[in-house]
């Protein structure tokens, strides 16, 4: 289970986002805590009033909205009742058990996940301190719930070749069957919430997997000068289709300025995944005495790693990007070291593939974790130990002495 805790300033926006999901058939109301009456019959304004009643008690606190997502592995098969129990327990453990909150179950991704909307102002007007809540309370709560409900652990989960974010359906979007804004919003927010990237180029490398791109506009354009950003759907040729959406019009506002904050935070977060990525690349090369570019790409895809070579209009390859979809990180080749730059990797390719065959001895010998027994002389030693010994014979002088004593005894008797 992965828990993400985000503070915001607009509880209305959070509710709008989730209620629109329900209207589109991509979510359902799972649970409401701290609401009197039948929540299913509440309008958006009635739900909003419950939260605004608390935020008005302390108008000095501007960042008063809280948006939490609980994400479960695809292997976790959970009923709605179990999701309710897990959510209630989680909110209790992080100190929000007495706060009003609404829980939405989303079905717009390959994995089960819930969104929780609440505020951090108590009925007495005091503010719940959320500084460091991620590692202080959320992480211990996550680990406890994983153990209690037998969930797949966020750390050390098994490798999966499935992307947990559904790519946008371009054909449906073109013909208006899927609203472009909703499709882009779902993907952009999911990527920001789960992946670790440190530049717009890396962000786009991830987005392109899901048929979306973030565009700053052309050189010397007004949009680029003002730091604007738009999002568009793209087809399999990388061509933009449909109507682009301004970043400011998307929920959570993934503008260039806000993305810059994510870039800085992710620099430290992704460090631990640098060496594992290099190890996976080397494992592929070790399987072949010669390998082609296409095979290299295919082998890494088996490990849930996508490789993107960056080429200019003249056909010159000037860069390489590795998207690790297992650990949700992205690295440029230069970030991993010179040995993993585009030039170095291209120099390691050949015209044909030649896979290294395992040694015959290793191939046919059954795998065992026990050492073969060492030869000993135990049986021979045992036979020698228990062989009957000959009876000892006394010295001759001793026998003569006994005969003399016997003659003396006879003389006395006479």
Describe this entry's structure for a reader.
The protein has 414 residues and is an alpha+beta fold. The chain folds into 3 domains: 2-149, BirA Bifunctional Protein, domain 2, CATH 3.30.930.30; 170-269, no CATH class; 272-355, no CATH class. The chain is built from 16 helices and 13 strands. The strands form 4 sheets. A 5-stranded antiparallel sheet has the order 1-3-5-4-2, with helices on both faces. Strand 7 and strand 8 (240-246) form a beta hairpin. Helix 3 (80-93) packs antiparallel against helix 4 (133-149). The protein is globular. The N and C termini lie far apart (114 Å). The relative contact order is 0.08. The model is unreliable at 156-163 (pLDDT under 50).
Question: How many extended strands?
Answer: 13
The assigned CATH architecture of the largest domain is 2-Layer Sandwich
Low-confidence stretches: 156-163
What shape does the CA trace take?
globular
Give the percentage of residues in beta strands. Answer: 15-25%
Q: What is the H/E order? A: EHEHEHEEHHHHEHEEHHEHEEEHHEHHH
Number of helices: 16
* Structural domain count: 3
Report strand order across the widest sheet: 1-3-5-4-2
Q: What proportion of the residues is helical, as a percent range?
A: 40-55%
Indicate the mean pLDDT: 84
Question: Between the first and last Cα atoms, what is the distance in angstroms?
Answer: 114 Å
**Mind telling me the CATH class of the largest domain?**
Alpha Beta
Q: Fill in the CATH topology of the largest domain.
A: BirA Bifunctional Protein, domain 2
Report the sheet with the most strands, covering strand number, pairing sense and barrel closure: 5 strands, antiparallel
Structural class: alpha+beta
């Amino acid at each position: 289970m992965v828990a993400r805790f985000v503070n915001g300033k607009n509880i209305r926006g959070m509710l709008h986002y989730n209620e629109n999901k329900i209207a589109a058939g991509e979510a359902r109301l799972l649970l409401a805590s701290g609401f009197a009456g039948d929540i299913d019959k509440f309008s958006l304004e009635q739900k909003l009033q419950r939260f605004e009643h608390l935020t008005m008690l302390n108008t000095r606190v501007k960042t008063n909205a809280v948006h939490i997502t609980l994400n479960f592995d695809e292997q976790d098969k959970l009923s709605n009742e179990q999701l309710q129990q897990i959510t209630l327990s989680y909110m209790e453990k992080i100190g929000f058990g007495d706060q009003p909150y609404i829980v939405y179950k989303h079905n717009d991704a390959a994995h089960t996940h819930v969104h929780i909307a609440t505020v951090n102002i108590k009925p007495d007007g005091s503010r719940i301190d959320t500084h460091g809540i991620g590692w202080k309370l959320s992480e211990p709560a996550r680990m406890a719930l994983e153990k209690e409900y037998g969930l797949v652990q966020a750390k050390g989960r098994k490798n999966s070749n499935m992307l947990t974010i559904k790519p946008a359906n371009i054909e449906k979007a073109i013909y208006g069957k899927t609203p472009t804004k909703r499709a882009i919003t779902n993907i952009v927010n999911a990527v920001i919430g789960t992946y670790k990237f440190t530049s717009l180029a890396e962000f786009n490398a991830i987005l392109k997997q899901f048929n979306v791109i973030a565009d700053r506009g052309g050189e010397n354009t007004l949009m680029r000068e003002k730091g604007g950003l738009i999002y568009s759907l793209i087809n399999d040729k990388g061509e933009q289709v449909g109507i682009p959406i301004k970043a400011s019009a998307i929920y959570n506002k993934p503008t260039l300025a806000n993305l810059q904050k994510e870039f800085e935070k992710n620099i430290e977060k992704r460090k631990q995944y640098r060496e594992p990525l290099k190890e996976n690349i080397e494992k592929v090369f070790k399987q072949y005495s010669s390998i082609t570019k296409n095979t290299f790409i295919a082998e890494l895809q088996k490990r849930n790693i996508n490789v993107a070579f960056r080429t200019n209009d003249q056909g010159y390859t000037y860069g390489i990007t590795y998207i690790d979809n297992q650990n949700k990180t992205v690295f440029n080749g230069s970030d991993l070291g010179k040995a993993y730059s585009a030039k170095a990797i291209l120099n390691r390719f050949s015209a044909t593939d030649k896979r290294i065959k395992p040694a015959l001895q290793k191939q046919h010998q059954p795998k065992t974790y026990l050492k073969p027994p060492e030869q000993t002389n135990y049986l021979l030693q045992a036979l020698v130990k228990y062989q009957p010994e000959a009876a000892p014979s006394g010295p001759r002088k001793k026998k003569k002495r006994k005969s003399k004593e016997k003659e003396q005894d006879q003389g006395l008797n006479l």
